[in-house]
Each structure stands twice: as C-alpha cells, then as structure tokens.
Q: What sequence folds into this?
C-alpha cells in the first residue's frame, strides 16, 4: 500500500488510516452509537471476520471500550459513507491473545471499514450536562449539611465524567473544562467524606485531584486534614510545608501547620510516656518474678537443711 494519504492516528504508527472513499457530513463524537460494515483480514490477506458476509452491520458505542483500541481511534475520524482501511498493530488490537487459527497472537489487523450511520443524541455532551446538574445538586445538599446526599450526587456526577473518553476529544478547550470538572468533583468528594469522617476515602480523592493539579491549594489542605485525622501528623506537616512553597501567604495552611506540629509533639510525648510506663512495668514484673524465684530457692535450701 502506498504511504500517500495515510494518517497516523495513534501518533506512534500503531493505528493508521487510508481513506478509499470520501464521506459527507460530520464525524461521530465520543459516546456516539455507530453502525459500520467491515471486512477484517490479517496482514497476509487471510479474512478472519466480515459483517458483509453476514449481511449484518455492526453497532457499538464509541469510546467505551466495546471494541479494540484501534477502532475507538479510527471510527471517530470517519464521516457517513466514508470507506477506509485501518491497519492496527497488536498493541491496539488483540495483543498477545489468539483469536483462533486464522488470527494468531500478536497479529497485525487490517480492516476495510465503511461508516453507515451514527446516532450522537447521547454523546459526551449529554454526560457533561448531566454531570454539571448533579454537581449543582450536590452543592445544594452540602449547603444544607446533608453530606451523605451530597456525596451521592458528586459520585454520580464523577461517574458520568469518567465515562467520557476525554483523550479522544478534538478541542483542547473542551478537554481542559472536563479535566477541571473532574478535579473539582474529587475535591468536593474529599470535603464531604471528611465531614462524614471517612478520611481514608477522602485522602484517595485528594490524591486524584492532585494528580490533575499537583499544587492545588484545596487539594493539599484537605489532604493534610485527612492525614491529621488519621494521626499521620508527620505526613500532614510535610503536605502543608509542600503547599506553602507554592502558597506562602495561605493563612489556613500556616495555622494548620502549627496545629499539627503541636499535635505531633503531644502525641510523641504521650507515646514516649506510655513506652516508659510499659518499660517500668516490665522491669517491675521482672523484679517481682526474680524475688519470687529467689524466695522459692531459699525455701528449698531451708527445707533441705531441716531434712538433714
């Protein structure tokens, strides 16, 4: 096949596309339900599957992992009526998995695909709109101190966002907004879970938010609170010190830092006193056992003398 007009969809040569017939209209967006015809064969030309032979188009939802990665990358680039050849290397196909005699492990796949139609009435924007509504409901419940209900709304909102294949969106602005919403939901969940005293779960959400924005002030502050509540005072202090490098004027962080230093010192002193008390008790018990044994030995010696 000539390399002319071949697009590298995966940017690493793992999925390439050559259009053989132009289509019309717009392209399907992530979460669109598409209908395609295809003929699949190996790089040696052996046909292993064909919807045309069955005379039955294949349907799936883009971006939800219902098909191999190569298809999730390739089909959204097509227009209705377009025909294209997708060449898919094993890492974007079935990998080391054998799919029968015709398709051994580590096979490069070649698909002749035609996009027949698609329905984008429930595309990623639907999930986004629903997620925003649920987030707002969560905020309302939080304001009413209904932390369990707020947690439920935020969790549902985050689930919808997680279903969106963000990396497949074309507009960087759209990606940025969704990633920012995801970060906000993790932070909101952290706060509601802190209020419910589920500190370990809250800590996990703080870490997820900080993966998105490592220097986020709310994420660092709430992470320190979780660590403090879990009696991990040294960790809380380190988190706050790291945060103050980027937010040196943050009064809440400065105040919390001094608070946890005092808590750590009091905890360590109490722990040392308890350890000292345990050691004293251990020595006392040892001395008592020695005295008892000494008394027993003396009694034995006296009894022997009496017998003589």
A:
């Amino acid at each position: 096949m000539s390399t002319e007009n071949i697009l590298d969809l995966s940017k690493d040569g793992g999925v390439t596309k050559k259009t053989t017939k132009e289509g019309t209209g717009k392209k399907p967006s992530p979460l669109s339900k598409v209908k395609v015809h295809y003929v699949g064969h190996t790089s040696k030309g052996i046909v292993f599957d064909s919807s045309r032979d069955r005379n039955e188009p294949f349907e799936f939802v883009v971006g939800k992992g219902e098909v191999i990665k190569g298809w999730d990358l390739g089909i959204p680039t097509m227009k209705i009526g377009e025909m294209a050849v997708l060449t898919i290397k094993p890492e974007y196909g079935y990998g080391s998995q054998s799919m029968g005699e015709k398709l051994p492990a580590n096979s490069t796949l070649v698909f002749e695909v035609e996009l027949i139609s698609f329905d984008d009435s429930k595309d990623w924007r639907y999930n986004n709109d629903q997620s925003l509504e649920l987030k707002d409901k969560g905020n309302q419940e939080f304001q009413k101190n209904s932390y369990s209900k707020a947690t439920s709304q935020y969790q549902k909102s985050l689930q919808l966002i997680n279903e969106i294949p963000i990396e497949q969106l074309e507009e960087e602005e759209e990606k940025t907004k969704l990633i920012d919403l995801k970060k906000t939901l993790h932070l909101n969940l952290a706060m509601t879970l802190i209020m419910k005293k589920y500190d370990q779960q809250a800590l996990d959400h703080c870490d997820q938010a900080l993966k998105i924005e490592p220097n986020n002030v709310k994420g660092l502050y709430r992470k320190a609170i979780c660590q403090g509540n879990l009696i991990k005072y040294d960790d809380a202090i380190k988190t706050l010190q790291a945060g103050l490098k980027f937010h040196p004027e943050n009064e809440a962080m400065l105040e919390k830092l001094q608070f946890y230093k005092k808590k750590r010192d009091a905890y360590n002193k109490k722990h040392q006193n308890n350890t000292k008390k345990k050691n004293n008790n251990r020595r006392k018990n040892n001395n008592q056992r020695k005295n008892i044994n000494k008394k027993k030995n003396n009694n034995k010696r006296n009894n022997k003398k009496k017998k003589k």
Q: What stands out?
A: The first helix runs from residue 51 to 54.
